[in-house]
Amino acid sequence: MKHLIISVALAFSAHTLADTIIVQSTTSTQNSGLYDYLLPLLEKDTGIMGTGIKVNVVAVGTGQAIKNARRCDGDVLLVHAKSAEEKFVADGYGDYRRDLMYNDFVIIGPKADPANLAGARDVIDALQRIKQAGAKFASRGDDSGTHKKERSLWQAAAIDPGAGSGQWYLETGSGMGATLNTGVSLGAYVLTDRATWIAFANKQDADILFEGNPALFNQYGVIPVSAEKCPNVNREAAETFAQWLLSDAGQAAIRAYQVDGKQLFFPNAD
Fold first, then answer.
1. Who's near 87: CB < 8 A, 6+ residues apart?
2. What are the residues whose beta carbons fall under 8 Å from the beta carbon of 124, sequence distance 6 or more?
3. Which of 6, 35, 5, 23 is nearest to 195 (CA)?
4. What are the domain boundaries of the chain?
5. Superfamily of domain covering 104-216
């Protein structure tokens, strides 16, 4: 899988920090355009200490992002799989984990809705309907935060989708955007975060067919990587970056980000 890297130089005031940090993050935040929006605001923010920081964002699935950070290839994690994030911190690799923002997952699919998700009482019923109908379902299959959520939902529905692998259950091993492209082209259902779907251009005949269930809540967290486990980490700059996101200014910037007049992420720093 190709890693997407976004870079921006941050012009901060006050004392000097080392010049680069790596943010290991998710394809959902990248596909939604969030970093393209946030990083220029960070660059212009003169209320944060530091000068000349360059931020490199590596956008991969959450599972891969956490693996990269465990190998000390990163200064900050911004991902969305809370139990895995908490384990990362408990194992000593993160200094702390803070809630940052949330949105939700939705199931998209062809408007004809062959599994009749419109009649589903909850997300478990929706998945059972897909299985019973033998309707196609495209999965990321990449241990991302979205894939982790999907697997937990199949488990709750008492369904082993792997038994239908290559038949009705299609694993792309790709990011959210690529999986949506596959799902749309094949008339398959897909579990996606709402932000990526709103920003996704190739909707064709697909639409949101199931949404609004509490089980589809999607929390994002931010974690500075521990300098004790990873002596090469740019700890001061990582802390500056994380604290800006958690600050009133960062939370306001997240709240203000919209695509087609729709808010994509909802700040909830704890």
1. none
2. 153, 156, 157, 215
3. 35
4. 4-102+219-267, 104-216
5. Periplasmic binding protein-like II (3.40.190.10)
What's the rounded Cα separation, in Å, for the pair 199 and 257? Answer: 12
* Alpha helical stretches, state H, 91-221: 123-133, 145-156, 176-186, 194-199
Q: Which two tokens stand for residue 194?
A: 């709402």
Domains 4-102+219-267 and 104-216 share a fold: yes
123 touches 213 (CB < 8 A): yes
3-state class of 260 per DSSP? coil
Tens-binned pLDDT, residue by residue, of the chain (270 aa): 444 444 444 433 333 445 688 999 998 888 889 999 998 888 776 344 344 667 889 999 899 999 999 999 999 999 999 999 999 999 999 999 999 999 999 999 999 999 999 999 999 999 999 999 999 999 999 989 999 999 999 999 999 999 999 999 999 999 899 999 999 999 999 999 999 999 999 999 999 999 999 999 999 999 999 999 999 999 988 998 899 999 999 999 999 999 999 999 999 998
Cα–Cα distance measured from residue 106 to residue 216, given in angstroms and rounded to the nearest whole number: 7
Fold annotation for 4-102+219-267: D-Maltodextrin-Binding Protein; domain 2 (3.40.190)
Decide: residue 151, CB within 10 A, 0-12 exposed, 13-18 middle, 19+ buried: middle
